[in-house]
Design brief:
Helices cover 6% and strands 46% of the residues. It folds into three domains: 4-68, no CATH class; 99-127 and 199-257, no CATH class; 132-184, no CATH class. It has three helices and 25 strands. The strands form eight sheets. Strands 2-3-4-5 form a four-stranded antiparallel β-sheet, with no helix packed on it.
Length: 259
């Protein structure tokens, strides 16, 4: 974790262009167009660039020009909409360094509303970097897949991958065998929901900051949704996040994409 710098201040209402004196520094709010931001200035007049500061018991992180960061993660720690670092006991990242491809899907099994963030139990699945050994253990062999020519379901008997990385799916129907590519692997099981062949990576707990927009993929349709919608829908593809200023991977400290 980067060096933390301690300051002590008396908390108070923070209003436009109001300065709050603190030991070793001052917070100042500025307005740029419709955007308001807080800037921390050290007692020597320099801004706290890329530094952690502690104010009234709460940690904040200041980026370029001392601007307070919000709705992001730094050093594996989450920062909420109010700029405060979520409690250290909750913020250690269980997925830091995890290799998860861009075709990863995250299913939210349950989520606890913790104010400025969700604490969610999720299942991560991926369909992009199988090995032959893994393909025989993904649980897809024996699954039912629709065979258009038969107007009926057959059972997957084998899933394989070529040296060029192309996935092949073998499906048995009586004495006949049918072959599908990875692109053909979208099917409708008896419960009537579209699914794709996936390999379960792990079940884990993640913290999801609020007040950002994500773009989950629904088949080939891409649409914007708030994190509230994302959590309630229980399933979404991990794709770029828009935090109001920039578009980036879904909190790259949490999920490292490897397309």
């Amino acid at each position: 974790m980067r060096r933390k710098k301690y300051i002590w201040a008396v908390a108070g209402a923070l209003s436009l262009m109001q300065c709050i004196s603190a030991y070793a520094g001052t917070w100042t709010q500025e307005t740029l167009g419709e955007t308001k931001r807080w800037i921390y200035t050290n007692d020597d007049g320099s801004t706290a660039d890329y530094e952690w500061v502690k104010d009234n018991g709460d940690w904040y992180y200041c980026g370029r020009w001392g601007v307070m960061e919000t709705n992001t993660s730094v050093d594996g720690y989450y920062i909420g909409a109010d700029g405060k670092m979520i409690s250290e006991g909750d913020t250690l990242n269980p997925l830091y360094g995890e290799r998860v491809c861009g075709t990863c899907y995250m299913k939210v099994n349950s989520a606890e509303d913790c104010g400025s963030y969700y604490k969610a139990n999720v299942t991560l699945s991926d369909s992009s970097y199988y090995t032959n050994d893994e393909l025989n253990q993904v649980g897809d062999v024996g699954s039912k897949i629709w065979i258009e020519a038969r107007g009926d379901y057959g059972k997957i008997s084998c899933v394989d991958i070529s040296t060029s990385g192309d996935m092949g799916i073998e499906v048995k129907y009586g004495n006949d065998t049918y072959y599908f590519t990875k692109e053909d692997a979208v099917y409708t099981p008896y419960k009537g929901e579209e699914e794709t062949l996936t390999r379960k990576i792990k079940d884990t707990e993640v913290l999801i900051p609020k007040n950002v927009e994500i773009i989950p993929a629904n088949g080939f349709e891409v649409y914007k949704a708030t994190l509230d919608t994302f959590v309630n829908e229980k399933m979404a593809r991990l794709v770029p996040v828009f935090d109001g200023n920039t578009v980036c991977a879904l909190y790259d400290d949490i999920i490292n994409h490897a397309d």
